[in-house]
Amino acid sequence: MHFLSVFIPLSHLLITSWAQSEHSITSTGKLRAYDQYNIIRFHSNNITHVLKDVIQPMTNDYDIWTRNTEFIDIKLLKTIKIPNSNEYSHEIIINDINSLIEETYDSSLGNNDQENIFDVSLKMNNNNNDFFYFKQYHPLQSIYLWLDLMKSTFPNLVTIENIGTTFENEPLKVVHISSNNSSMNPKNKTILITGGIHAREWISISTTLFTIYQLLTKYGASKRETKYIDSLNFLIIPIFNPDGYKYTWTNDRLWRKNRQETYMSNCQGIDLDHSFGYKWDNNFEFPCSEEYSGQYPMEALEVKHWDTFINDITTRGVHIYGFLDLHSYSQDIIYPYAYSCDELPRDYENLLELSYGLSKAIRNKSGKNYKVVAACKDRGSDLNPKLGSGTALDYMYHNKAYWAFQLKLRDTGNHGFLLPPKYILPVAKETYAAIKYFCDFILNPEI
Ligand SMILES: [Zn+2]
């Protein structure tokens, strides 16, 4: 039995004041409350019509939660009267957003136990089935300390690099995992995994952390993980948007963008997933928009740092074979391109086969169904080109990584972005099954 624990200094206990004293976070004004809103699902095969002809003429106070070829989920004021139409049907899928927000913190609030939330523990035993750290979500500082703990526990396998600083001076951390970690072995194929590009998609972050944990703790004990770490380089960014993620813990659980200044002082943040430098456009020109793309490509600092880092390692001979960008929600395996359905992705049949393989790996693990969807359809860019502009998926696929996917994790709308902590492990485990499938595919010498 091996037990390690790090207790976070008091200066980091920024959240315990409300965590200890209040049961209702949103009602006290500590976090933004959403009493006045519902999440509405519009069933339609023309989401652009719903958005442009129905929603936008009525209000600019809307937030798209997810969209695909069959429906679009939108946060709308309860006072909005939605007209009946033959073009769509609609239903309320979430009418008490505040309760769901509070549930995502629930186990942290639990017994008013501040150690519970900030105790970064790593317990390992022979069965390796404790998973203590994955019983709840954790704030930024806690996660960064946990990464340090991983580094100190597995010094021969882990390197953590700060690849830049955010607008609010937080480090952007990349975790390298390789048995040849001092300098990545250029002969090894490299796999990149990113989480948390959108701040409110917490499940994507906990899933990257679980992936790190599984790879490291199983190295030497399991043939598969040992082979992965000996033969591949992993580069994992668990929190691509540290400022935004921090903000979801302190101000607004539903924040999506980063926290960078814009030309409008009252509207901060660029949507990182519209900021990448491939097929970028400035059609999302309004800084208050949840999808604001900035004034020029890669204006978002996190994206700029990532671009510099990727260019640097590829110049040094690192070959990126695979890229998985984790998001939520809707249970989709999404393949390029996002910006247009007119450009056929290279090696299309294999790409599709790999997509279905990822989906099947998840289904075999948990029984959950993940749909395989072309990104252009998922985004709706076949109907409105701006919807698919400047994505991480297209940028990585076109310029940097041979095989690239976006995975939208659970659920299908019951909780949306507000997945309760009890789902952290089930989602992490099924996604890790897909990641292993991806590693096996990449390790195929013919690929
Ligand atoms: Zn997302």
Automatic annotation (TrEMBL):
Family matches, as SMART domains: Zn_pept
Q: Which Gene3D superfamilies match?
A: Zn peptidases
Which first-to-last residue range defines the signal peptide? 1-19
Every Peptidase M14 domain range: 136-442
Q: Which InterPro entries match?
A: CARBOXYPEPT_ZN_1, Peptidase_M14
What UniProt keywords are attached to this protein's entry?
A: Disulfide bond, Metal-binding, Secreted, Signal, Zinc
GO function term, MF aspect, one = zinc ion binding
Cofactor(s) the protein needs: Zn(2+)
The record's section on PROSITE patterns has: CARBOXYPEPT_ZN_1, PEPTIDASE_M14
Where located? Secreted
SUPFAM superfamilies per the UniProt record, alphabetical: Zn-dependent exopeptidases (SSF53187)
Functionally, this protein is described as follows: Inactive carboxypeptidase that may play a role in cell wall organization and biogenesis.
Q: What is this protein called?
A: Inactive metallocarboxypeptidase ECM14
User: Lineage of the native species?
Assistant: Eukaryota, Fungi, Dikarya, Ascomycota, Saccharomycotina
